[in-house]
Structure formats: structure tokens, C-alpha cells
Amino acid sequence: MQTQLNKILEEAKAQLEKAVNIEETEDIRVKLLGKKGKLTEILRGMGSLSPEERKVTGQMANKVRGEIERLLEDKFEEVKAAAREAKFKLEKIDVTEPGREVKLGVKHPITITIEEVSRVFMNMGFSIVEGPEVETVFYNFDALNAGPNHPSRDMTDTFYITESTLLRSQTSPVQARTLRKQDPPIKVISPGRCFRCDTPDATHSPMFHQIEGLLVDEGITMADLKGTLDRFAKELFGTGTRTKFRPHHFPFTEPSAEMDVSCFKCGGKGCRVCKGSGWIEILGCGMVHPHVLEVGGLDTEKYTGFAFGMGVERAAMLKYGVDDIRLFYENDMRFIDQFK
Ligand code: DAH
Known about the structure:
- This protein is α+β, with helices and mostly antiparallel strands.
- About 40% of the residues lie in helices and about 20% in strands.
- The protein has helices at about 1-20, 20-35, 40-45, 50-90, 110-125, 135-140, 175-180, 220-235, 290-295, 310-320, 335; strands at about 125-130, 135, 165, 185-195, 205-220, 245-250, 255-260, 280-290, 305-310.
- Helix 5 (about 110-125) crosses helix 10 (about 310-320).
- The longest helix is centred in the first third of the chain and has 41 residues, at about 50-90.
- The chain starts with a helix and ends with a helix.
- The model has no long low-confidence stretch (mean pLDDT about 90).
- 3,4-dihydroxyphenylalanine binds next to strand 8 and strand 9.
- Tetramer of two alpha and two beta subunits.
- Keywords: Aminoacyl-tRNA synthetase, ATP-binding, Cytoplasm, Ligase, Magnesium, Metal-binding, Nucleotide-binding, Protein biosynthesis.
């Protein structure tokens, strides 16, 4: 039995030497010290020995068991450390590796222009309102005094959805909506998308943007209109900018005008941007027609107001020297990246 014990110890040593991971080590432990393990069986069989033999063999068996337990403990420590090491290697981060660049988006030039114009008017106390892009014929035309025979109502100019709904062809319906919703003093601007049945070319797009403005209160005159819009032009294009108002016609204003600004490129001498005239047309405006105020439910004896509307693409094209409106909608980053 003692030779058997010695053999077990030698075998255990040899096996543990070869074991390379936790599983193999555990396997060896079970085979020796487990319930049916070799050493366990020997210890169990000691009952059949004589008392003297039992004493000697018992001592030896305990020694062998102690030795094996110690060997196992060492081996477990070794393979666990190795396992940890392997895991660390797998998870290692190379901090010297160059990072992957995240490409940041930029604001679209149309957004930039809307924000700049909005900021100027907000600094003058205007607030921003919005209206629907799918609009009723009533708000887009009737409420704005565009009679049943007005040319802009034509199917070839406006996208109709049904007989009574359409894609708004201007932001002016927001004027009519605001007049019904708010009591004076009203001081709002409304940027947004508009739609017209235009074939795309360098200066036309079936979808474009406008910014509408409306100011209504007691005692508002053409002088307020001129003062406000002149101030706007100076804020947006520079303090040296001059303005000029030319008579025009819009159904929803009376009198109506178009405002020109002195060319911000040449200062008025005449260049390619202003086509030699020294002036650039920038917006339409006028005193709100009494019919429009009436439809809005206002007392026209008491209240007057002015309104204006400008094309955002046109302003952006002039400002940035873009000569084709279609560039705004192609989303080519090489184009859009230039307006940062
Ligand atoms: N809605 C006009 C257009 O699309 C622009 C405009 C002109 C708006 C004069 C106004 C205004 O509010 O008073 O051409």
C-alpha cells in the first residue's frame, strides 16, 4: 500500500507538470481527491489493515495527501494567473493607434441665412411663428385678397392637393393665420418652405424658402415699414447699405413696394452681382390691405400694419455668390462645407 501511495504521488507530480489550464488541473484533483478519487479509495481501504500497519500507512497517506493538496494549490495559482494574463492580452488597447476621425456635419447655407435674418428681426422685437406647408386655398389666396381670377391660382403655378388644399406657394398665409390668432400688437416673422410648379433651372426650384414679416398695431405707417426694413438691411449687409423703395403690386398690400439695397459687393458703383445697376432687389413689402385685416377680424379704423416677404435662396445666392439655386439641394458636402 505504501508503494501504491508513492506511485500516486509520483503520478500526480507528473500529471500536474503537464497541466496547462484550470480545467485540466481540476480534472486531476477530482481523480485523486474526489469522492471516487484514487487517494480517497486508499484512505477508505485502510480499515482492513492491522492497527500497526494502519498507523504507519495512515501517517504516510496523510503526508501524501498534504503534498498533493499543496501541489494542486500551487498549480491552480499558476494556471489562474496564466488565464488572467491571456485575458488581459486579448483586451489590450493600443493607445498609440491613430483615432478614427468623426466627420461633423455643418449648417446648410439656407439655414444659416434664415438664422441670420431671424436674429436681426428678433433683435428688433419680432418673434417667430410657423404655419403649415400643406395649406388651404383660403389662407394661401382668399384671405390674402388674391381674387378668384388671380394668375397665381393657376394649376400651372401652384401644386393643388385637392380643390381646397395645396402646397403653400408663399409664406404669406402665415400672416392671415396670425391675424386671426393674435391680437395686436402683432410683430412676427415666419420662415418656411414654399412650393411652386417651376421647372428647375439656375434660378428656379419647385421648393424654396421665404421669410414673411408682419407688424400690426395702432398708428403704423409706411414710415415704420421703411424704418424697420432699412434697419434690417443695414444690420444684414453692413451699416453703409442704402435702401430704395420702388412701387409694386401685391394683392395683400396697398400700397406695395419692392425694396432694393445698394450693392454690397461694389457699394453701388455697378458690378457683376448688381448687373451694373448698383442696386439689388431684396424683398416685397407694403401696408397690409384693409381686406386682409378685416378677414383677420381686426378693426381697420383702429389698426394698420405692414408686411414683407423675401426669398431666402435669392438672398443666400447674392450673399455667397452662388450662381445656381440647384446647388442648395444636391447635398454635395464639397459645396455645403464651404459655408462653415
Ligand atoms: N408673398 C410674396 C411673394 O411670394 C412676397 C411678399 C410681398 C410678402 C409683399 C409680403 C408682402 O408679405 O407684403 O412674392
